[in-house]
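Let us work through a complete example step by step.
Step 1: write down the sequence.
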Amino acid sequence: MTYTSFWLEATKQVGGHSRLKYDLPQKRGNHFGPYDLRAWAERQGLHIEYVDNCFVSVVVPQQKLVNLFSELYGSGDFSQEVLPSIEPGWHYVLWAEEF
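Step 2: predict the structure and record it as tokens.
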């Protein structure tokens, strides 16, 4: 069986201590793993950091992150909890791993 993990970290500077970390929920029947994150980042023109072929991270600008969350989660409870925490001037790193 394959497991997928998808999470977000926010820092004042890349490589700094995380202000927040959210384990991002997987939509029922639709896992957003490293291959999905890589494909999305490529479409957005974002740099992809490879830990290995099944573990990637992407630094995401605020507006692109808001757009992705709206696309993945709509306006449900999760979006209402997380979206207000997304502020300009912070660095947001999406991580996805499959194991």
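Step 3: interpret the result. The mean pLDDT is 78.
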